[in-house]
Amino acid sequence: MMLFTEVCGLPVVPQEGTAPLGTVTSLDVDVVSGSVSHVRWRGGRFRRESVLPWDAVHSVGPGAVRVRSAAAEQVPPHHDLLGRRILTETGTERGTVLDVAFDTLSARLLALFTTRGELPPDRLLGLGDYALVVRAV
Q1: Would you say the pTM of this structure is higher than 0.85?
Q2: What are phi and psi of 56, to 5 degrees?
């Protein structure tokens, strides 16, 4: 298990190499499956953002994110979970996301830590420009 805040800032390294390709800037989430879908990183001469599907990740550890392939995908729309406002489907505000715990092997979200306590990932309904929408209890 790791937290999003522990992964952001880690070097992205090829599975069989030691020279970093860049640094993790964020993780994308698929709220429907409740898992990490992509790793976003910035590196290289022009410091462009690259996006890798989670399937390209070999391992995630405290020292680096090792990738099988550095072939970046077209950059999908991105809505960062960290710092995102939380609303229920009825519009009630439920704080903001402070961090997210996830399983580094399966990419499954384990818990969202918010300004109002812990939120289970099975309550996620949608993520957009304005807010993370969750099922009310």
Answers
A1: yes
A2: -80, -10
